[in-house]
Design a protein that fits this description.
By secondary structure, the chain is α/β, with parallel strands linked by helices. It contains ten helices and eleven strands. The chain is elongated and about 75 Å long.
Length: 349
């Protein structure tokens, strides 16, 4: 189908004309709404690409296909058409209506003057499993990680080979990176691919199976995949003495978009305090979206970190685009998000 401008519902094959299965499938492929990129430049490219579809009337068109008996099409192709039309409808019904998606993120590696791709699976999203979505703060922190190398004294760059590893005065593989609230794993996998040191990604039990699968599917970009591990870490239990004895220790702790409850600032700050190595080279890197509803939690988290003996060494803002509930007919409505990032170290005594 060739069109001079954006396609409308009237440009698509109309059911009263009894279009062939091939025509209907081709039209439904044209209407596919892919997960958006959150990069500012790519965001503009996405807008231009999606402008070929005028969404007015499209949901009604898709509903008509699902409701139709499609009596002129054989049984096997009918099922294919109904399934495709249902998927197109779910894509226009908000992120929580979509069964599952896969996304590919491209991360620049300035050390090797190249880039690598991370492919992540996101299962069906519910309000209880927000860790099944890759949030924009994770993407922004993943992109920022290589730029923060000068702020991470336990790591060093081999300028000859363009490889990052532990600082020369430390034992090999002594630096461990811990990610709290890893979700789909973008930040931790990026750290493992960039820095070539052990990385332990943690989250709640319901999140771990998908997190482990995502780590495994990206092993090919990690030099030492056996040193990239996953595990359960529930911040609400970290106050007990039994739990504290089992907590992993790390020179570097990472966390992106972890605050979704008034209890989280205290839980997260206390977990960081108990998991962070007490050496002068220890660092914590956090990226938090400045959502209006959660600004008090962000400020409380900063106060809790200071109260636990941590000092903010460097901070800044990033801007990106997230996708959440679509309200304009497209399930992948892009929302501009400002995120605050900060690097913390232990206060000198």
């Amino acid at each position: 189908m060739r069109l001079s401008g954006p396609a409308t519902a009237l440009d698509l094959p109309q059911l009263y004309t009894h279009p062939s299965a091939t025509e209907l499938i081709a039209s439904l492929e044209l209407l596919a709404s892919e997960p958006t990129s959150w990069d500012l430049k790519t965001h503009r490219d996405d807008d231009e690409a999606q402008a070929v579809i005028d969404e007015a009337g499209i949901p009604k068109y898709l509903t008509g296909i699902v409701a139709s008996q499609l009596g002129w099409i054989d049984d096997e192709r009918r099922e294919e058409i109904w399934e495709a039309a249902s998927k197109r409808l779910s894509e226009r019904s908000g992120r929580t209506a979509i069964p599952s998606v896969s996304r590919t993120f491209v991360i620049s590696n300035p050390f090797t003057k190249s880039s690598f791709s991370i492919n992540l699976h996101e299962p069906s999203l519910t309000s209880d499993n927000l860790g099944h979505k890759t949030w924009v703060a994770s993407y922004l922190l993943a992109k920022r990680l290589p730029l923060l190398l000068p702020d991470l004294p336990s790591l060093r760059l081999d300028n000859v080979h363009g490889v990052v590893g532990v600082a020369s005065h430390l034992p090999k593989l002594s630096t461990q990176i811990l990610e709290l609230g890893a979700g789909t794993g973008l930040v931790g996998i990026t750290a493992a691919a960039l820095f070539h040191v052990p990385v332990h990604l943690t989250d709640l039990p319901t999140i771990i199976p998908n997190l482990q699968a995502n780590v495994s599917r990206n092993n090919h970009i990690i030099v030492n995949p056996e040193h990239t591990t996953t595990g359960v870490l529930d911040w609400s239990h970290c106050s007990s003495r039994v739990e504290q004895r089992c907590l992993p220790k790390a020179d570097i702790i990472l966390s992106a978009d972890p605050l979704y409850s008034p209890l989280h600032p205290t839980w997260l700050a206390n977990t960081i305090e108990r998991c962070l190595d007490k050496g002068h080279m220890a660092r914590v890197i956090v990226e938090l979206p400045l959502r209006e509803a959660y600004v008090p939690e962000v400020e409380e988290f900063k106060l809790r970190m200071e109260g636990n003996g941590l000092k903010l060494l460097r901070e800044g803002n990033d801007v990106g685009y997230d996708d959440w509930e679509g309200s304009s007919g497209s399930g992948y409505e892009k929302l501009k998000v400002v995120c605050w990032w900060g690097i913390w170290g232990l206060t000198e005594k």
